[in-house]
Request: fold
Amino acid sequence: MDILSVASRSLGFMKRNGFCAGINEISESFSIRKLRGSDYVMPTERDLEVFKKLADNLTYRPLISIVVPAYNTDPFGFEGMLDSVLTQAYDNLELIIADASDDKAILRAICDSKSDKRIKYLELSENKGISENTNAALEEANGDYIALLDHDDLLTPDAFLRIIENIISYKKRCSKEPDVIYSDEDKTGWDGKSFTERNSKPDFDPELLLNNNYMCHLTVMKAGLLKKLHFKPELDGAQDFDLLLRAVREGATFSHVPQILYHWRTSPGSSASNTEAKLYAYEAGVKALSDHAGALGLKADVYNLRNVGYYEFRYSGDIFSQRKDLGAVGGRVVSEPHRGKITGGIMNSDGTVLYEGLPVGYTGYFHRAVCQQSAQALDIRCIKLNPELWDEFYKITGVKYSEHRTPGTISMRPHENGRPPQEGEKIFDAKSLPEDADIKKLSLELSKRIRELGYGMLYYPSWQVKSHE
Reply:
């Protein structure tokens, strides 16, 4: 991302969130530019030959339908998208173009020029929006799986080879095919030759999905499931997010390909380069999440976080009465509340603190440091325990579980909403531990026991306590 793009995005952020938050955003944007680069290298001719040989030798060759809703697409961008599909190493594909453009002769001519029978050009009588246009393409899809592709984005040459390899591998492990497969992605300039902002995604995390549509591109779904769900026109802008949330409710299985298979092309005004360009989409995301909560019978409020496209999913009342599957909820530990750094909180099972050293005002790689997410381990100094586990807590720590209320939670929402300060949360009173207690050891032992008993753990980054180490 160039300096002008950072400046434009940061000014919009500052307008919504205030001067101090804006300064933090600008500072962090430049400090993590290297982390937000992309290590994607365009394949050589030799690489392409290897991809083709691997694809030809696959033991499973399902038909994949790629659906592309198009509307007044730039011809250069459209042809680049077409070529990235037609040159795939894995060739058992069909490409369905649902064209709602004002002048349909333009895209039709480009499709005809390719002379490839795998292209299905569908002329729509009117533009009914991205959901309805995509639904029209779905009706023409004959594949076993359906892939979603924007009308000017690009796929890597091995995209569907890696998708099929992932399906085969998943089936060997789980004795069935995954319902949804998603990959890592990055962004590319209009020329399709420079790459930035690699998005290395985590494996499926239903808690993180309540904060952000982190799967995004490339997403491939079983045809039967996608046709059953369809896209909802009233959620245009967040229609893909809503689709994934409804797939979760259907009990879908998810598999992650940890490779860049999708290049999200940036252009002036596109949501890839300018988050201000599609603010309506992020409001639709709030509705998608609110609908999701209602469908699950959960009482929760959904708010935009300061970074658009990211949300807070805040449960109302006692969280454990609604989420009996959770054993613990935990927040972060910081050296100083406002200008300090993160010293504790969510950890891997080996005790590595995920966001250790990150300044308090920063949001981290793709803002994940401020997202609720599943945890392997939580810091005992900022934890709330399911009452079912209080006896286990005593067995491990030798201290009876008791709670106190924190001064207040950290708001990561836009300032413009004018909400009063959030009331503090009742969490474990860490002062009841002996002064010489081994905090990390106790935290890991407790977290391990929680997992052994079949409970999950949730990280709530808006909960915060000051370290007394």
Notes: The radius of gyration is 24 Å. The chain has a mean pLDDT of 89. The first strand starts at residue 64 and ends at 70.
